[in-house]
Design brief:
The complex is a heterodimer of chains A (about 110) and B (about 120). By secondary structure, chain A is mostly beta strands. Helices cover about 0% and strands about 50% of the residues of chain A. In chain A, a hairpin with a 2-residue loop joins β7 and β8. The model of chain A has no long low-confidence stretch (mean pLDDT about 95). Chain B has no helices and eleven strands. In chain B, about 0% of the residues lie in helices and about 50% in strands. Classes of the chains: A mainly beta (about 110), B mainly beta (about 120).
Chain lengths: ~110, ~120
């Protein structure tokens, strides 16, 4: 199975900060990588697909990038509504595998 | 608009069975696969497998072979997840999600297994 190593596990951030979350894939997954935001008691919401593509309706302060086997989600100028848990998902190969999640909290 | 609406919460005893439904609307049901994801309380997401909504063929992740069954009521644009011989460790929220990219998700069904 492909392992997705996500870091950090949690971040305490301030409004206006630039935040970067990373997932490293244990095998080649190409651009078959998505990012999700999950709020408490809610289902995950797709934010980025194909490693770099912004889902419709997602604010432009969110972006995705890839460098080799490292995939990053960046939030420019964090807003209060951006708190929650962020997960990456590889869907290159079955079984699909998720990163362990990054909990984003305000200081 | 695209929606996946799941059935309500369940409270079951060990050894019992449960069937969860996921009704899709706003798109052609058979054009996209349906995937299932488990989230234990306070934990991350675990992919359970998927069902081809055109052929009805299910594919299960290794940890979900045996007691878990994916099925369809295609005429009702509904995917189902049945879990038999429930164990305490099956206590979780179960999500359905559309397509390989998991682009749309149901609201989740909390299944609690307790004696």
């Amino acid at each position: 199975d492909i392992q997705m190593t996500q870091s950090p596990s949690s971040m305490s951030v301030s409004l206006g900060d630039r935040v970067t979350i990373t997932c490293r894939a244990s095998q080649d997954i190409g651009n078959y990588l998505s990012w999700y935001q999950q709020k408490p008691e809610k289902s995950p919401k797709l934010m980025i697909y194909g490693a770099t593509n912004l889902e419709d309706g997602v604010p432009s302060r969110f972006s995705g990038s890839r460098s080799g086997s490292d995939y990053s989600l960046t939030i420019n100028s964090l807003e209060s509504e951006d708190t929650g848990i962020y997960f990456c998902l590889q869907h290159k190969q079955y079984p699909h595998t998720f990163g362990a999640g990054t909990k984003l909290e305000l200081k | 608009q695209i929606q996946l609406v799941q059935s309500g919460p369940e409270l079951k005893k060990p050894g019992e069975s449960v069937k969860i439904s996921c009704k899709a609307s706003g798109y052609t049901f058979t054009d996209y696969a349906m995937h299932w994801v488990k989230q234990a309380p306070g934990k991350g997401l675990k992919w359970m497998g998927w069902i081809n909504t055109y052929t009805g063929k299910p594919t299960y992740a290794d940890d979900f072979k045996g007691r878990f069954v994916f099925s369809l009521e295609a005429s009702a644009s509904t995917a189902n997840l049945q879990i038999s011989n429930l164990k305490n460790e099956d206590t979780a929220t179960y999500f359905c999600a559309r397509s390989r990219e998991l682009d749309y998700w149901g609201q989740g069904v909390m299944v609690t297994v307790s004696s």
